[in-house]
Amino acid sequence: MNYFKQILRFAKPYKSYAILNIISNIFYALFSGLSFMVLMPLLKVLFDKDTEKVLIEPTFKSFTKAATYFNDYLNYHISLLADNDAAKALTFVIILILTVFFLKNIFNYLAMYFITFLRNGTLKDIRNELYDKTIELPLSYFSEKRKGDIMARLGTDVLEIQHSFLSILELLFREPLTIIFTILFMLTISVKLTIFVFIFIPISGIIISLIGKSLKRKSDKVQKEQGYFLSLLEESLGGLKVIKGFNMEGIFNKKFQDSTKRFFHYSNSLLNRTNLAKPTSEFLGIGVIGVLLWFGGRMVLVVGSLESEQFLTFMGLAYNILTPAKAISKASYSVKKGNAAAERVLEILNIESPLKDKPDAKDKSDFTSEIAIDNISFKYEDDLVLKNFSVKVSKGKSVALVGQSGSGKSTIANLVTRFYDVNEGNITIDGDNIKELTKSSLRNLMGLVTQDSILFNDTVKNNILLGKESATEEDVIKALKIANAWEFVKDLPEGINTNVGDSGGKLSGGQKQRLSIARAVLKNPPIMILDEATSALDTESERLVQVALENMMKNRTSIVIAHRLSTIQNVDEIIVMQKGEIAEQGTHIELINKNGVYKKLVDMQSFE
Q1: In the chain, at which end, N or C, are there fewer CB atoms within 10 A of the end residue's CB?
Q2: CA distance linking residue 88 with residue 82, whole number of Å
Q3: CA atoms 45, 49, 55, 61: torsion sign
Q4: Which burial class, exposed, middle or buried, applies to 155 when counting CB atoms under 10 A from its CB (0-12, 13-18, 19+)?
Q5: How far is the C-alpha of 266 from the C-alpha of 95, rounded, in Å?
Q6: Which of 335, 67, 97, 356 is nearest to 184 (CA)?
Q7: What is the pLDDT of residue 58?
Q8: pLDDT of 2
Q9: Nearby residues of 257 by Cβ (< 8 Å), 6 or more positions away
């Protein structure tokens, strides 16, 4: 229940629907009990063969005799209306019964109608906040988590909460109210018989709770396994070329089948335990009905302290308790399953992002002087990737970072854009520590072209517009031309309105990269970060893009992370990195003349 207290905050905007649902449930519970009480006059009409009746208006004596008063009161007025005509009396009684059942079902529908808005609204808001939190969390969080597990939490876990949320409202209002009203009506018929019902409820509750104790644990296993095989599916689809190329279909098939086998066992265990609730509660219910038939039958036939129509009505009311009692047991099971789902969802919602904007963080709208990376150290896990690294990039200047893989080049890009925070030292823009700026304003100052060309399953135009949503079609075409992408885009079946497929799968690597560059060009930021932007290009595309990049970098501050050294010969400063530290720095000519690390790297690459 602790988790549901936190989930309840999502229901607050829909509290009016909750109130209307409760009101409808009160009337439903009332008419549910009355639907059996109004059967008494019908039974009286059917069983009583005495045609000569003395019409005496009944008087109310006590609560425990209220059923007798209710029966006599209805019979008195029905007899007056029917003028002692049994056929007419039967018609009036049937109309009364139909009216009560009609009202019962109208309020039942209204209760479900209002709760639908509450459930679906809560579901929508949980999903929205969960997605919002998911894209807000730092990249470091997702390096440890499986994508499939996150997808399972957004999908099936949230749905489980939605169903459990309905169950808990039934548990709190609908079913208990039905039981309370029914017991009140039963007390007006016979206090002795009602005592048996009070004995039945706690006994069945104890038995059902014992059965349901392990449900949360079993449900948690099911949900975790579901997250695992969704992740495996996502990885398989993403790496299909590698799987087929290395003939690994059998290995991945086995992994998936092992997962679905575990899911099969966990699900069987969970569902069998859940399914035990219905037969258990039904058997307990029939047991108490049997006791009531024996004891109540004696009160009618032997003692004579109970009228036959009252006894039959009481039996109907007793049976009316079984349905909500079974619903409560089912709801309590559902709540236990939902508790496991809520725990998994709230695990994400309750995480405090270490990169969250400070309350007094300021918006920075322009870049005027320099980016200063001052004596920073950083590690992803245990070992330092950067050690006491310092560099300054003045406005309008371009700096290239080169070095072997793992030397910390791309880490600089991740830190400047604040995808991660430094462990030691500071990064400032115009003297402002980037931790003191809002992430949104910081990233608005920067354009990013990554090593992996990240495109979305949408049109060319919409992929480019991510750089600047308000741009016109002419602006998009201009950006494509600067990135040397227009030459192939204009020949696509629908031009800029052509869908690029999942992850840009319909395009070549070079084409995808040029679209990524066009997106950065359209944004037109004062600072450009190119993280091995030309590494995926063929020689011809590289030449085309290199001219575009050089044009784009004019009068613009650029940090270029380069693998191909031929692309960075014209930058203002080259920094050679080794194991997270600066090995050399200077212009291309200066570093060649030094005949050091940079010269060795250049000699290892052939230039055309």
Answers
A1: C
A2: 5
A3: negative
A4: middle
A5: 52
A6: 67
A7: 62
A8: 63
A9: none
Distances (CA, A) of 37 to 87, 134, 159, 186, 467: 20, 55, 39, 9, 70
Q: Where are the alpha helices (DSSP H) in 137-276?
A: 139-142, 147-152, 158-169, 175-189, 191-212, 215-238, 240-245, 249-275
Cβ atoms of residues 361 and 373 within 8 Å: no
Instruction: Choose among 144, 308, 149: nearest CA to 220.
Output: 149
For each successive 10 residues of the chain (608 residues), what is the average pLDDT? 74 88 89 78 59 55 61 63 65 80 91 87 86 80 72 79 71 79 80 73 63 60 73 71 70 82 81 71 70 74 72 77 70 70 81 81 86 87 82 87 80 86 88 86 83 80 84 86 84 87 78 83 84 66 69 77 75 85 85 83 65
Q: How far is CA 461 from the centre of its chain?
A: 30
Q: Which residues pair with 527 in a beta bridge?
A: 446, 557
Q: What is the pLDDT of residue 107?
A: 92
Residue 373, helix vs strand vs coil:
strand
CA 598 – CA 42 distance, rounded (Å) = 102
- Cα–Cα distance, 605 to 596 (Å, whole number): 15
Which position has the token pair 């009286």? 44
Among 193, 429, 209, which residue's Cα sits nearest to residue 316? 193
What backbone torsions phi and psi does residue 392 show, to the nearest 5 degrees? -120, 135
Please give the structure tokens belonging to residue 158: 């949230």
Query: What's the DSSP call for residue 526?
Result: S
Strand partners, 558: 398, 528
pLDDT of residue 217: 62
**Residue 607 exposure: Cα atoms within 13 Å on the Cβ side:** 8
- Domains of the chain, start order: 2-221+275-349 (1.20.1560.10), 370-604 (3.40.50.300)
Distance CA 166, CA 159 (A): 11
pLDDT of residue 110: 93
Q: Three-state DSSP class for 337?
A: helix
Dump the DSSP string for 41-66. Answer: HHHHHHH---------------GGGH
Which among 203, 202, 206, 185 is positioned nearest to 318, based on CA atoms? 185
Q: Which residues pair with 399 in a beta bridge?
A: 559, 573
Q: Which residues contact 606 (CB under 8 A, 6 or more apart)?
A: none
CA-CA distances (angstroms) from residue 366 to 97, 291, 416, 525? 77, 83, 16, 9
Residue 43 is predicted with a pLDDT of: 65
Distance CA 66, CA 64 (A): 6
- Coil/strand/helix, residue 558: strand
Q: For position 558, what pLDDT does the model report?
A: 85
The identity of residue 532, as a single letter, is: E
